[in-house]
Amino acid sequence: MNQRATGEAAIEIRDFSFRIEKKEILRGVSFSVYRGEYLSIVGPNGAGKTTLLKCLDRIYTGGKGEIRVFGRPLERYRQKDLARHISYVPQADGRIFPFTVAQFVLMGRYPYFSPFCSISKEDRRAVADAMDLTGIAEFADRRLDTLSGGERQKVYIAAALAQGAEVLLLDEPTTFLDYRHQMEIRDLLARLNTESGATIVAVTHDVNRAATDSHRIVALRQGLVVFCGQPKEIMQPHVLQHIYGTSFLLVPHPKTDLPVIVPHVPQGSEP
After folding, report:
1. Higher pLDDT, 114 or 138
2. Entry pTM
3. Residue 181: CB partners within 8 Å, gap ≥ 6?
4. Which homologous superfamily is 1-85+166-271 in?
5. DSSP assignment, residue 172?
6. Residue 32's beta-bridge partner residues?
7. Are 218 and 233 in contact (CB under 8 A)?
8. To bridge 235 with a disulfide, which of 126, 153, 225, 259 should be the other Cys (CB 3.0-4.6 Å)?
């Protein structure tokens, strides 16, 4: 992926810490996300990745430090106003809502709804555009429970796009999907970033995909930022070992000069 142009920060996080009950989940987190950037967040289980996304979208409130969205402190936004800037696609949890695709995508327009007002032409146009862009228009009248996991993930992304937000937060967008649907979601996010100018912030456990898909990568470990830089800088055995606490084997990608991780052969399985 081409390197992003430097410019205005969409999100600025400065020395941000967050606790759930007595457990400190995030500790002094600092980095920025720039407009039009594709940034991936990686790290071990329990590192605080999902918690950070939920703090950015104010699903979780509180914490110490500062978060700014387009230069404005997060706490100064009304939730509907924030939703016009940031949309969030949560990690799939198996729940399927009893709506048609069109109904569910229309719910993404909630930041623009007012009491006693009917659905506007602009709302319907936004829904249609989001479904066209994600390739789900043919499913408009189908119920979510009749779709495959990959098709539902496209619906969830379409609902986020219907919000009209410039920043798209995604938590493990390809988890539980087969290879074809993983590639379709990755291609979709790349198009949204390069063609539509969407700012993408995606949590993932797949470091290879983070490296091939992103402009920059942030790594968390035990709530701390332990890496922030370009893909070629993270794809080094000593850097990855520092993040994950285990050894890695890397080889050159056959189509790029970027190293990629290959699995170790289990002990006793060598020929």
Report:
1. 138
2. 0.92
3. 148, 149, 150, 151, 153, 174
4. P-loop containing nucleotide triphosphate hydrolases (3.40.50.300)
5. S
6. 12
7. no
8. 259
